[in-house]
Amino acid sequence: MFLVGLTGGIASGKSTVVTVFQELGCAVIDADVIARQVVQPNEPAYQLIVQKFGNEILLENDEINREKLGSIIFSSSEKRQLLNSIIHPRIQKAMLKQIMKYFVLGYRYVILDIPLLFETNKLKRFMKHTVLVYCDPQSQLSRLMRRNGLSKAEAEARILSQLPLDEKRRLADHVIDNSGDWESTRLQVLKLHAKLEESLDFLLLRLAAVTTLTVVGGLLCFFLRQSLRSFF
Ligand SMILES: CC(C)(COP(=O)(O)OP(=O)(O)OC[C@H]1O[C@@H](n2cnc3c(N)ncnc32)[C@H](O)[C@@H]1O)[C@@H](O)C(=O)NCCC(=O)NCCS
Ligand SMILES: Nc1ncnc2c1ncn2[C@@H]1O[C@H](COP(=O)(O)OP(=O)(O)OP(=O)(O)O)[C@@H](O)[C@H]1O
């Protein structure tokens, strides 16, 4: 099994691409989904966040007000780093558990949807392939404003909190351009899936090599012992 790191910019179309991979039966782990789970009121990260950001970031039902927390962290890099330092280690731990699950289930590859894969730089080394979901800056801005109901300035602040997409483009092994329509994106995903399916699984090859060497070595020892016995 190997890992594929899928990333992009805010609202560049990661979830759209992931949906196609899921329709193809691929295993996907979504860091945004995990980030929501680890801040539920019964989780240790919840207490820490309330302690650091105050009760005013809570909704009436005591859950975290994501809109409010978002407006705080996207206008202050210090606050953003503080939140990241609480949530990211927990996301990584939960991801590792899910990777194990898919390994046991025998999946050929697992896609990790990690928006900040290139920014944090911690997980990149474990990826056999990295995929960037790109879209042109104008589409990214207008899609983000429309989806989240943000002003131009608010949307730009969120985009600027991440590495520019053109820079990420240089770091990625594969690029899916989601600037066009859904169908064009879907076709690119189908092509990439076929490529990944063909890609050699070095972990499996290494296991096969070790098994072969062990068996051949064992047989050699056995025959050597037999011939020494008959000789004496
Ligand atoms: C700030 C929060 C509460 C806003 O929640 P909201 O539901 O509005 O957005 P959602 O979680 O769906 O994230 C949307 C996108 O925002 C971007 N984003 C989220 N957090 C960050 C961050 N810390 N830095 C830069 N971009 C971020 C990503 O592109 C992500 O895909 C939430 O994003 C959060 O808890 N962020 C910190 C955890 C994190 O880093 N998540 C990204 C996964 S690595
Ligand atoms: N090819 C497309 N054409 C038109 N709209 C699109 C296209 N792809 C995605 N969108 C829209 O753009 C918005 C962002 O897409 P999506 O949610 O897939 O991005 P994302 O990268 O997962 O976002 P986030 O960073 O917030 O997790 C959504 O409202 C989606 O419906």
UniProtKB/TrEMBL annotation:
Pfam families: CoaE
GO cellular-component term (any): cytoplasm
InterPro entries: Depp_CoAkinase (IPR001977), P-loop_NTPase (IPR027417)
Superkingdom per UniProt: Eukaryota
Keywords for the protein's UniProt record, in alphabetical order: ATP-binding, Kinase, Membrane, Nucleotide-binding, Transferase, Transmembrane, Transmembrane helix
Keyword Zinc-finger: no
TM stretches of this protein: 203-224
GO biological process: coenzyme A biosynthetic process
Signal peptide start-end: none
A GO term for molecular function: ATP binding
Similarity annotation: Belongs to the CoaE family.
Name of the protein described by the UniProt record: Dephospho-CoA kinase domain-containing protein
Gene this chain is encoded by: DCAKD
